[in-house]
Amino acid sequence: MKVSEHLQKAKKPLISFEILPPLKGKSIQSIYDSIDPLMDFKPSFINVTYHREEFVFKKREKGFLERISIKKRPGTVGICAAIMNRYEIDAIPHIICGGFTQEETENALIDLNFLGIDNVLALRGDPIKSESAFVPETGGHANAIDLVKQIVKLNNGEYFDEDLQNANPTNFCIGVAGYPEKHFESPNFKTDIKHLKAKVDAGAEYIITQLFYDTEKFKNFVSSCREVGIHVPIIPGLKPISNKSQLVSLSKFFHIDLPDDLVDAIEKCKNDDAVKQVGIEWAIQQSKDLLKFGSPCIHYYTMGKSVTTREIIKQVF
């Protein structure tokens, strides 16, 4: 079932999760172990992230360096298929611009369509570590809106290969990302909302936000979206803080502000167990506030920490 249909048919707020593929060399059992404790809550869908290649340089004879591409977390498509088979629940793969040509994107979408996966989350993706800024693949997309447009064309039966005749259309429900505190590359919040509206106008049917810890900023984000004519469902994404080092890493990697009250509470903690409890309590309160605000679904970034996520949901739903 499409995410849009889940949201339309829901008689109460929904729950969804996001998981990481296991590291290369690990089995899918680690995925099952992280999902099993959460199935009691009947999530409507599970997102599976996609991690593009990274590059390493290995020394060869005579001092030459060879640039080698590696993928640390492969298997997004296979994991989605396995989740749907095991749990009979909708799995949503992340589809990214980075590392794909348009033709490779089309082939990936065809595979998903064959598997009966009818939801995708269209993202530009992050630059690889060796790049100071995002660099699109030659023949690929530079922005998420172009990826959305390609998926819409496939839904209309328009394939990259113009010679195809009477091609069957796909039927993907397209989600995109939203940033309550703006994308770090946007010059300001207004411009970021304008770019988000363009993605929705291009065919995106719902929005999932980046993690945030100030619920008022999410409310302002929703209000700003509605004011410019974005009327698709907006799903808030939450991730509980679990250790003190995240006071730095979350701000650095996600370009977000942490509320003073949260920072003060974490700085007073004597160990990470105490930090974890603060993170759980903060996420519980956020969840309750978001439900009171009218959010149609709450999306939890589990990061493999299903026990923490379970504690939060038990107190909210």
**Number of H- or I-type helical stretches:** 11
Radius of gyration: 20 Å
Give the SSE order as H and E letters.
HEHEEEHEHEHEHEHEHHHEH
Please report the total strand number as a whole number. Answer: 10
Measured by DSSP, the beta-strand proportion falls in 15-25%
Low-confidence stretches: none
CATH class: Alpha Beta
Helical fraction equals 40-55%
CATH architecture grouping: Alpha-Beta Barrel
Name the average pLDDT.
92
How would you characterize this protein structure?
With about 325 residues, the protein is of the alpha/beta class. The protein has one domain (about 5-315): TIM Barrel (Alpha-Beta Barrel). The chain is about 40% helix and about 20% strand. It is built from eleven helices and ten strands. The chain has helices at about 5-10, 30-35, 75-85, 100-115, 145-155, 190-200, 215-225, 245-255, 260-265, 270-295, 305-315, and strands at about 15-20, 45-50, 55-60, 65-70, 90-95, 120-125, 175-180, 205-210, 235-240, 295-300. The strands form two sheets. Strands 1-2-5-6-7-8-9-10 form an eight-stranded parallel beta barrel, surrounded by five helices. The model has no long low-confidence stretch (mean pLDDT about 90).
